[in-house]
Design brief:
The chain is α/β, with parallel strands linked by helices. It has a single domain (16-361), classed as Aldolase class I (TIM Barrel, Alpha-Beta Barrel). The chain is built from 12 helices and 11 strands. The chain has helices at residues 25-38, 50-62, 73-80, 87-109, 125-142, 159-173, 211-221, 250-263, 282-290, 300-316, 334-337, 339-361, and strands spanning 21-22, 42-46, 67-71, 112-117, 149-152, 179-184, 188-189, 227-231, 236-237, 272-274, 293-298. Helix 6 packs parallel to helix 7 (211-221) and helix 10 packs antiparallel against helix 12. It binds zinc ion.
Length: 370
């Protein structure tokens, strides 16, 4: 088997400058390389509507950081509207709508945005294929894809089945300059049906990806195109009580070393992503970043930040959520219940939480947008 050798990691790093806006293809690779050589990572924030999407771009602009914006299938469906009858169609069109919104606005925020879709298990392969259909049509029209990358999470399937399906998908994406994120090993968490009780046996081998699996993924996928890997190193989706599971970032280090050694590549040849990072200790995050992690998902914490800010406002302005005009004082509450008032607070809550995330990941002030 011949394997394409990517020597980008061996070149001395030159400063990268990209046009602001959605980045794809070689620009996406250049941004990832800038993160890895600069020793920082970008938060990948799940959005569900224009409120959260705009809040993420605002936060990135304020912190002079680039950012990754992603949609889960549920988030995409919500973006299209929960009332749409055909759920699959809503998941596809909601993602397309969000992507078009980001393409139109991101450049005006002056930062680089990687557009991505989150976990798609086996049953959601038609969702990804549907988005790629739209992506191909967009590519024909504009010469650019809609998304920077999509994800397939077939980590519950046998390794060879997982990789065969990822190879099929990457063959559709690569000609448009799109990348594919894959998952190896089971990351614990609600969406995986792996609850905290199941994690008590922390040495459960399935929670820790084996470096040999990462090597196999490299052999199958690198000849086709750009792929990124979510490897399990004890990370858990969602926030659980600490102590249930042990983070072992050295799994990432060992995977990088195995691939580099086997194929004669430079330091940290793989582009790694960190799922289930909410609530992780900053030292473990920094350690993971030093092993080539350029992306860390954040969803639970920004959801709470949005809700918390609005919850406080509702608590302090309860009457305005019960009456248009105060029954005793005749005071009109229009200014208080105007959705712009409290949705804006939710947006600001998200932006504040992301300011912390940029700092934790070391990306503050590092935007490559010219
Ligand atoms: Zn995952």
């Amino acid at each position: 088997m011949t394997v394409a050798v990517d020597r980008a990691a061996e070149r001395p790093s030159e400063p990268v400058h990209l046009e602001p806006g959605v980045v794809t293809g070689d620009d996406y690779r250049a941004l990832v390389a800038a993160c890895k050589s600069g020793g920082y990572a970008l938060p990948a924030v799940n959005i569900v509507g224009t409120n959260s999407l705009n809040a993420v771009m605002e936060a990135a602009a304020k912190n002079k950081s680039d950012v990754i914006i992603q949609l889960s299938n549920g988030g995409a469906q919500f973006f299209a509207g929960q009332g749409m009858e055909d759920a699959l169609q809503a998941k596809i069109l909601g993602a397309v709508s969000a992507a078009r919104h980001a393409h139109l606005l991101a450049q005006h925020y002056g930062i680089c945005v990687i557009l991505h879709t989150d976990h798609a298990h086996k049953s959601l392969i038609p969702w990804v294929d549907g988005m790629v259909d739209h992506g191909e049509a967009h590519f024909k029209e504009t010469g650019r894809p809609l998304f920077s990358s999509h994800m397939l999470d077939l980590s519950e399937e046998p390794l060879e089945e997982n990789l065969a399906e990822c190879a099929r998908m990457l063959k559709r994406l690569a000609p448009m300059g799109m990348a594919l994120e894959i998952e190896l090993g089971v990351t614990g968490g609600e969406e995986d049906g792996v609850g905290s009780e199941d994690l008590e046996a922390a040495d459960n081998a399935k929670l820790y990806t084996q470096p040999e699996e990462v090597l196999r993924a490299y052999e199958v996928l690198s000849p086709i195109g750009h792929f990124t890997v979510a490897a399990s190193f004890g990370n858990v989706h969602g926030v659980y009580k600490p102590g249930n599971v042990q983070l072992r970032p050295e799994i990432l280090k060992n995977s990088q070393a195995l691939v580099a050694e086997r194929y004669g590549l430079g330091h940290n040849p793989l582009d790694l992503v960190f799922h289930g990072g909410s609530g992780s200790e900053p030292e473990k995050i920094a350690e993971a970043v030093s092993y080539g992690v350029f992306k860390m998902n954040i969803d639970t914490d920004t959801q709470f930040a949005f809700a918390h800010a609005i919850g406080q406002y509702v608590e302090n302005n309860l009457a305005a959520f019960r009456h248009q005009i105060d029954p005793e004082t005749d005071k009109p509450y229009k200014k208080q219940y105007d959705p712009r008032k409290w949705l804006r607070l939710g947006e600001q809550g998200v932006a504040e939480r992301l300011t912390e995330a940029f700092a934790d990941l070391g990306s503050t002030g590092k935007s490559v947008a010219r």
